[in-house]
Predict the 3D structure of the following.
Amino acid sequence: MTKPTETLKTYWRSLEDHDGTLAAIVDEFPGQADVAASAPLIPATKLARRKFAGILGASTALAGLTSTGCVRKPVEHILPFAKRPEDMIPGEAIYYATAYQVGTSVLGLLVESQDGRPTKVEGNPRHANSSGATDMWAQGSVLNLYDPDRCRVPHHLGADGKHGVSDWDTTIEELGATIKELRGNQGAGVALVIPTVLSPTYRSVLRTFKDKFAKAKIILSDAAGASNGIAGAELIGGPGTRATFHLTGAKVIAAFDSDFIGTEQDHVRLQREYADGRAAFNTEDAANISRLYAIEPHFTITGAQADHRLRVRGAEVGGLLVALASELFGAHALRLPPGGEGLIAALPKPELSPEHSKFIAALARDLNTAKTARRGTAVLVGERQPAWAHALGILINYALGNGGNTVRLRQDDQVVATEDLAALAAGLADGSITQVLCLETNPAYDAPGELGLAEALKGKVLVHLGSHMDETGRLATWCLPASHYLESWGDLEAVDSTISIVQPLIAPLHDSRSALEVLSWIATDAQVDVVDLDMERAFGRVDLARIVEGGYDLVGISCYSSYDYLKVMAIAERIRELLPRAWLVSGGYHASARPDELAFDGSPFDFVVVGDGERPLARLA
């Protein structure tokens, strides 16, 4: 028996509903008010529950008869396999090695791929900076690959002040004309804004850019960079000097505003080295574990791990470091490195509270005792501290005998000189900079507010290459989509000179380009495209039409094994027929081991690269 609708008790959901002032529900859908007025949402007649259920069942049955004609399948850009590749088992993961950069840190990664789709990031156990571990930025980087808010196509700023959809052909034609004009003026008035560059190939292209745009400025904008640490190292060893820290064997560690476990340069490697020094499996090990002193203005992971922690203001950290130097070089008579004899007299005399003086005296005594016992120590200074504090920290480490052990200096002779964001703001203010090119940077957001770049960049940003339409992208005339590092080729050099290859796991999901490709085009007006044959084979064929339509002047084909040899030769002969004027180059393991099988009279290849191909290909290009 059904219960009459009018006897049902009603409940109010808000004060407006109780007072009768709640807006009509139709306002939830703008533009539908007129429709709702003519066809009210609530039927005028009462309908029993059983009758309603019967009508609903009949409607569902009728819908099922025509469901095939009503359902529209979603558009999918990641296509299923038309022909499954060899050695691929559905549901079984395949792991690929690549590398990832945040600021000045490089991590070797193993990326899990499920049916051709990257899904999980782990550390590469064979990479010195990872040793099988990773961090939260690398773990979360795979999410950016599938972010629905990514830029998918180029956008151009119209006369109405709004960005409209464009394409790369139009971009190359219209933007290319402007770039060509700037190149003809040697880049006068141009500023190129880039993040920290650790790629040897990227640096090579930057030097080419500097040759073609001799009057342009190269600006560094990287919120995760180590600009203060680099400047401090250069105060000690000159331009290009870089300092790296190692905690293996360090028994006394002092961290001055340095969260080396959480966020500082090479923190993943330092985590492992610190943990190894704290391992205690028996009583003897417990007596030899390392001891950590932390001096910091806010609570960090490193401070939570510290045996002794001193909480101070950020502005006081430098003064405490000076006090430590005075204590070591004065009371404990440590000898300064050659050339630093006059440092003690030049250091200011900080005024410390009794608590701070007691802490610094105990730390200096512990460091000196470890030095006397020939045990390793380390003094680390965080990136938030100024350059002079980093330089003083390096001098203290060398005075403690840590040079070449826990602190190491090396000369980076391939680094490209850059200026900071203050130089960009000054150039925009005095009119010496009129066009700004931003490659995977966001200076409108990252710059300090006192520089006023968010306002100064209006109308001055010619190109912005980025994964998202961010603050700088909204100001750009051309906003170009950037490829994810899991979609593009590259290389990275860690601070210990380890070079890793960045290889893609999937073809670009959108019509995007990498920063290396865009900068190469800006610098030389040349376009480089990489076609991965294994990736193309996953779809059952090699797409030679893509190569022919590109009209390339140089085509390189890798030959890794005798299994690939016949296929590579067949592809090369076909390309030779279709592009008779193009240069064909081969390289790889098989080409290096048996170059005679690819270089012979009548071979379709013009050149065969034996060994590493970076410099030969650059010279050929």
User: Anything to note?
Assistant: The radius of gyration is 32 Å. Residues 354-372 form the longest helix (19 residues). Confidence is low (pLDDT under 50) at residues 35-43, 535-540.
